[in-house]
Amino acid sequence: MASSQLRKRVPHTKPPFTLADLKKAIPPHCFERFLLRSLLYVVCDLSAVFLLYYSTTYLHLLPSPHLAYIAWPVYWFLQGCVFTGVWMIAHECGHHGFSKYKLFNDTLGLVLHSALLIPYFSWKYSHRRHHSNTGSLENDELFVPKLKSKVPWFSEYLNNPPGRALRLATTLIIGLPLYYIFNVSGRDYQRFASHFDPNSRIYSDQERLQIYISDVGVFATIYLLYKLALAEGFAWLMCVYGMPYLVHNALVVTIMYLHHTHPDLPHYDSSEWDWLRGALSTVDRDYGFFLNTLFHNITDAHVVHHLISTIPHYRAV
């Protein structure tokens, strides 16, 4: 969509409809969540993870050793895409769009996100606040453009091709862990904030126990990866898990950033912001049928996801 076309559609004024009007316009079956159907996507994703890993055990049979220099990056990219699909399923569990059973959603989400070194409940609660404050300059949890007065002094020195390349590489490779650990690019809480800290100002007193549970899940995965590295070697672990994990990081950062960033996309201060205008201030992005399918359509149906996040991904489009 051309910039001028999108600008005409930007909902910078109060919409002439309500969320209730939108819900009435959506066919009732789109709100239905089927546990078995949702589980089928989990089985497909995990089967793809296993099959891709299993395929690496045959790389030594390639007719030329040099072909491995092509085969491994292909594996890293494809496995990273599938990891991202698994991340999307766990993200849907956090919104309780996976099924109508809250405990089942949280249990599955905890397992899947922990396997990707993501603190499930920590992410769930901060992400819920992002959905509650989308587009708010003061209260959104992430993707908030900085005011001129708060732009760091060193930014002007990075506003050149090498500087932009460095910032882009850093954001794509380790941006996701930096956000979880140090709340980099997150909301300013006026003091240190971390998704791994149960006492962080990100969370309420009622949520702190679950933050501990999230930490246990991530550290259990780290310990398992450590044992695998001892058994199989660090190089093996980096090839089969580490590199796909970095691809997954880059994809999640890219997808989430582009949903909330566009030259014509409005952000509101407290005098103008309301929930509906904020929820409409997101962008659908089309990555093509193959990637949209692997990412469970969180990419090309993101606006409706912000409006009604309990709609399962297979109903969103």
TrEMBL record:
GO terms for biological process: fatty acid biosynthetic process. Keywords: Fatty acid biosynthesis, Fatty acid metabolism, Lipid biosynthesis, Lipid metabolism, Membrane, Oxidoreductase, Transmembrane, Transmembrane helix. Residues 11-52 form the Fatty acid desaturase N-terminal domain. It holds the Pfam family DUF3474. Residues 71-315 form the Fatty acid desaturase domain. Pathway: Lipid metabolism. It is found in: Membrane. The chain crosses the membrane at residues 34-54, 74-91, 103-123, 165-182, 209-228. One of its GO terms (molecular function) is oxidoreductase activity, acting on paired donors, with oxidation of a pair of donors resulting in the reduction of molecular oxygen to two molecules of water. GO terms for cellular component: membrane. Belongs to the fatty acid desaturase type 1 family. This is Delta(12)-fatty-acid desaturase. It comes from Turnera subulata.
